[in-house]
Task: inverse folding
């Protein structure tokens, strides 16, 4: 079965996160078996990106979400390593600034949407406004509960205007997060990735899972599907994300534009 079919949250169906296993590696037994496929995918992705850029008609928006230490940064570093920086734009969404807070929640998002020919990658996204905002009561329920529909409408608008949207939820277990946070504390080269508030956030694990369950269930649409990536094993996470991107861009089949002149009739003297 194709990974897109295996890992998708079917539109209109519950995400059922409790039934998904972050240790799963469907289709692959171990890292060594996956290495070749990952390399191939990265090369294919580079080729597809180049054609998308040449075509200048459509864009791709990749949304990465996941709990702290789920591997959002690592996915970008490993899977996007073959991309041409010229037509790739990564945006990390942090706590909104005063200016951003003065606007509606999609204002800062819309500004970062990739332009025709580009692949845009969101490290966190508008989904924070139904995740962290919900878990910590940063807005009343009457406000955040309306956002699922607003997000679906916004993503439909983008899709209708040539932006293909792919959304990944990197799913790890609480134990795996513990291991990763510990290594951020123990390894001096990883200290910078640690924020003491990560420990406080861990206490809200159940609430985050519930918020993710809801967001994925309500916002996996035919035009902007969610994929749940089993992410305890980094090699499988990288493989699955690269594979789904290759499948998605492959289906788009971007083409080099036909020249508006007849190259056979022109001579460079
Ligand atoms: P990091 O991705 O580790 O650099 O952390 C970014 C932080 O910004 C996380 O704690 C997010 O929860 C927070 N954040 C991102 N978007 C929002 C938002 N819309 N409202 C509140 N906090 C946010
Ligand atoms: Mg962090």
Result:
């Amino acid at each position: 079965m194709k990974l897109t079919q295996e890992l998708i949250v079917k539109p209109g169906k519950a995400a059922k996160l409790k039934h998904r296993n972050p240790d799963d590696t469907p289709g692959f037994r171990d890292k060594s078996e996956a290495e070749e496929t990952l390399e191939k995918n990265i090369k294919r992705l580079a080729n597809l990106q180049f054609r998308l850029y040449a075509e200048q008609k459509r864009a791709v928006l990749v949304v990465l979400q996941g709990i702290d230490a789920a591997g959002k940064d690592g996915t970008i570093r490993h899977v996007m390593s073959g991309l041409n920086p010229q037509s790739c734009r990564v945006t990390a969404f942090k706590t909104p600034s005063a200016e951003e807070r003065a606007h509606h929640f999609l204002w800062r998002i819309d500004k970062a949407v990739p332009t025709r020919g580009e692949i845009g990658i969101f490290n966190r996204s508008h989904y924070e406004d139904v995740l962290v905002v919900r878990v910590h009561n940063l807005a009343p329920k009457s406000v955040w509960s309306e956002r699922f529909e607003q997000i679906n409408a916004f993503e439909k608008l983008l899709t209708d205007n040539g932006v293909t949207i792919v959304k990944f939820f990197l799913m790890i277990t609480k134990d795996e997060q513990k291991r990763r946070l510990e290594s951020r504390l123990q390894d001096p080269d990883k200290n910078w990735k640690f924020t003491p508030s990560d420990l406080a956030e861990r206490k809200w694990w159940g609430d985050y899972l519930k918020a993710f369950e809801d967001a994925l269930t309500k916002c996996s649409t035919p035009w902007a599907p969610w994929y749940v990536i089993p992410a305890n094993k980094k090699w499988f996470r990288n493989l699955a994300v690269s594979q789904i991107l290759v499948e998605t861009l492959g289906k788009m089949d971007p083409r080099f534009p036909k020249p508006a002149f007849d190259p056979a009739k022109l001579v460079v003297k």
